[in-house]
Each structure stands twice: as structure tokens, then as C-alpha cells.
Amino acid sequence: MRAVEIRPGVRIRWVEVPGASPARVYLHGLGASSAPYYAEAVAHPLLAGRRSLMMDLLGFGISDRPSGFAYSLEGHADALAVALAKIGLRRNEIIGHSMGGAVAIVLAARHPEMVRSLVLVDPHIDPHTPSLGAPGSRGIAAYGEADFLSHGFDRVLRDVGPHWAATMRMAGREALYRSAVDLVRGTSPTMRKLLLELEIPRVFLHPEDAPPSGGRELAASGVQLVSVPNTGHNIMIDNVEGFARAVAQQRLSV
């Protein structure tokens, strides 16, 4: 485990595997933690040998949970940029799952010196409408903050299933709620528009039976769309071999 202080008393932490450069930086989704989701894939022979940082965003996993942080996509990206700069890492390969994919896109748009390429793992790239009882960010964002903190968190934790709950219970409640609200709201311009306009190598991994909407436009902008069989949303867990092969086979260096 490693840590870096991004402002007085506030630390981002990660699990690191040493190896060659350029580094791969792995980002988790909402309510998750990077090491439990990525460790098996990082150790896969197709991906091993590279310096790999399984980073936890502020408010999640083993990172700090400051109450005064906005937990917006921009806030997460800016905090991550500070952490990477203090570590001495630039032009990294960023691999982001779900909400982590949205943060990765914003990081690349706001701090291009930090990102050489993106691998987006079934990422959030569009705003959505909150809906009480819906899974993930849409259901969380349907609460008011006070209601979520008082009883909504416990209800969501019961409904998400044991795997997700194992990491979600480590998240700060404010962090989980505010991150979900901002993820559903989206950025301006949207994450999709930011992704279309980036000029770095970009790969979009998706389940074989769930291609992204607007795929033709994404492909026309240079985004490589890669379907991974036998997976749901958690591609790196559902098919480790397929995920590792999809990442390893991409020509991401520039």
C-alpha cells in the first residue's frame, strides 16, 4: 500500500505492483475499490510486468474521506492529477471502470499531460435520470442527501448484493452520495463529448451483448470499441482472460 498527501491531512492511497513504464493506473467504479476489482487482472501474464497502481479515489476504499470535498467528477480528476504529479507520474495509461471511466475522461480533458491513453471499461459517458430503486448511481441520486445519509445508504447496501456491498460499505456516505449525484448529472460538456474530442488512443470495452449507444460516432472519432464475451458490467471480474487480452492487444502507445 502507498499513499500521497494531496492537501494537508488528506491522502489518496493505492496498492502498487512494481514494473516497467509507462505506468498503468487503474480506477474503480462507484462504491468500489480498485484492488479487489483489478488485482487478478493485474497479475495476469498478459498484463504483468508493468508498473500498476490500483488507486482509490477520495471517499472510497482505503483513501481518505474528507467531508469538505465536493466529490464531483472534476474534483476527483483534479485530486488524482495532484496525486500523480506528486508521485512523479505523467503520460500514464489510465484504465477506468464505470464511474472511474468518467473520471478518466475528465482527467484526460483537464490534465492532458497526465494521460497517454485511455482504456474505458463499460464507462458512464452520458447523464441519466435519477430513479428511486434503480441500481447504482441512478437509485442513490434519487434520494435527498439527508435521507440517504440517515437511511438510504443502509437500504442501498442491502440491495446491491454481497460483492458490491463488500467495498461499498468502506465508502464515505457523503462521498458515495455526492459522487452518484454528479455522475448522474454529468459534466458540461458531457463525458461523451469530451471523449469524442480527445486526441489520444482510446479503447472502450463493453459486454458482448451490450454495445454502447452512439457506437458509430465513437468509432468515427477514433475510439476502439472492443466487445468482451461472457461479461456483465464488471468485465475485469467476469472474464479476467478476456479483459487482459483486450487490454494487452490494444496499440495504446503514442
UniProtKB/TrEMBL annotation:
Q: Sorted alphabetically, which Pfam families does this protein's record hold? A: Abhydrolase_1
One MF term in the entry's GO annotations:
catalytic activity
Give an example GO cellular component term for this record. membrane
Q: Show where the AB hydrolase-1 domain sits.
A: 25-129
Superkingdom field: Bacteria
- Family matches, as PANTHER family: HYDROLASE, PUTATIVE (AFU_ORTHOLOGUE AFUA_2G14860)-RELATED (PTHR43798:SF33), MONOACYLGLYCEROL LIPASE (PTHR43798)
- The protein's name in its UniProt record: Pimeloyl-ACP methyl ester carboxylesterase
